[in-house]
Automatic annotation (TrEMBL):
Protein name: Leucine-rich repeat-containing N-terminal plant-type domain-containing protein
SUPFAM superfamilies referenced in this protein's UniProt entry, alphabetically: L domain-like (SSF52058)
Source organism phylogeny: Eukaryota, Sar, Stramenopiles, Ochrophyta, Raphidophyceae
Topology in the lipid bilayer: Single-pass membrane protein
Keywords: Cell membrane, Glycoprotein, Membrane, Receptor, Signal, Transmembrane, Transmembrane helix
Length: 273
């Protein structure tokens, strides 16, 4: 039988602890407002433990996560520790579930990282990411069974810093996608089936967002053979100094590419995303 995690284990899994960065401090009203605005499923599924997301520290986040689980064939995941509501030992505290790290903001716990790479996810991602308003890192890479387009609600996550969905089966055009938050500094979309013009306006917005910090924006479009266009418009080429883009095996033009461009940017390794 599955052993329920102890209180110590739960606290250890909440990687954010109680330390808040200045930019993460929000008021109680702002937190409540975010939850009111989030469009997430409210259906309560019967569970082996008799508990539901209504018993969770935050039902909005719990429901959003459970919708992701159901939409991507959660029963067939390689590791679904903590996610399966039919398990008699199911714990509604989502901070203890596989692939989730939480952060303590003003005494409330929020999902800050969701990492389910190589976990056998299949199907389309549901448009429920508005319920995870404090998510900073999303890593779903190497799930070949993931199909469809990027959910527009990804663009509602203002703190989102990294998005890694490389080596999946995702498709669709990105030009008018609402999935890109300007707060992103690392985007990995390689080896999917995305097509159409490159979202140059969204890329420029990302770089401008990070100008003051001097943070390099890194984007990988490689392996999406149906994508074309220019990474940046002519009037935005002055932003090249803070942009690293990989466009191999695409029809994308990269005006920022120089002989030493690959060596000038500090490329973030996979285990950091």
């Amino acid at each position: 039988p599955k052993k329920e995690k102890s209180t110590t284990d739960k606290l250890a899994s909440r990687k954010g602890g109680s330390e808040n960065k200045e930019t993460d401090i929000v008021t109680e009203d702002e937190i409540d407002s975010e939850q009111d605005q989030a469009e997430t499923p409210v259906e309560e599924i019967s569970t082996g433990s008799g508990l539901t997301c209504a018993s969770s520290p935050d039902p909005v986040q719990c429901n959003a996560l459970q919708e992701i689980y159901r939409a991507t064939n959660g029963d067939g995941w390689n590791n679904k520790d903590g996610w399966d509501m039919s398990d008699p030992s199911w714990n509604p505290d989502f901070c203890t579930w596989e692939g989730i790290e939480c952060e303590n903001i003003n005494g409330k716990f929020f999902v800050s990282r969701l990492a389910l790479a190589k976990n056998g996810l299949k199907g389309s991602l549901p448009d429920v990411f508005g319920g995870l308003r404090r998510l900073k890192h999303l890593k779903l890479s190497a799930n070949k069974g993931l199909a469809g387009e990027l959910p527009p609600s990804l663009g509602l996550i203002e703190p989102l810093q990294s998005l890694n969905v490389e080596k999946c089966g995702l498709s669709g055009e990105l030009l008018n996608s609402a999935a890109f938050s300007s707060s992103l500094s690392l985007v990995r979309l390689s080896d999917n089936s995305f097509s159409g013009p490159v979202p140059s306006d969204a890329i420029a917005a990302m770089v401008r967002q990070h100008l003051e910090k001097g943070t390099t924006v890194q984007i990988d479009f490689s392996g999406n053979i149906g994508m074309f266009g220019s990474v940046l418009a002519e009037e935005d080429k002055e932003l090249c100094g803070l942009l690293y883009v990989s466009v191999g095996e695409t029809k994308i033009e990269n005006p920022c590419e120089t002989a030493d461009s690959e060596g000038s940017a500090e490329v973030v390794k996979d285990d950091q995303t």
